[in-house]
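Observation: inputs received (chain + zinc ion).
Thought: call the complex predictor directly.
Action: predict_structure
Action Input:
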Amino acid sequence: MKTYHTHQRKSLLDFLKTNSEKAFTIEEIIEGLSGDPISQSTVYRLMTKLVEENLVHRTVKGNSRSFVYQYISDEKCENHLHIKCTDCGKVYHLDSGVTSIIQNNTGFEIDSHTLLLGKCGECKE
Ligand SMILES: [Zn+2]
Ligand SMILES: [Zn+2]
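Observation:
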């Protein structure tokens, strides 16, 4: 049933891409795909694959045991840094100007995979 899964993979990726500024739990992904129902075990399996392929970031949500997933577009992401909320796991893409400022001020060449940690606006409150 290869084509079947290809289709599910596509709807999963489409959903994450259109919401690439957010991080989702598996349950939220399933809910978001309500128009195209996919079983929980299939979503788990597909997400594991997407994480392995570096298309999706997986982070732990706050102090909980649940994971949140967020789409990462790699071509663009090579040129800028990311900041991750340690509470909800959301990953923000920083403007590439930030990298230039640091490089110009310190002479450092920054590893683009560096992940800065912090608290997002929503979790700060
Ligand atoms: Zn990025
Ligand atoms: Zn947050």
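Thought: report the result.
Final Answer: The chain has a mean pLDDT of 86. Residues 85, 87-88, 90, 120, 122-123 surround zinc ion (ligand 2) (CB under 6 Å).
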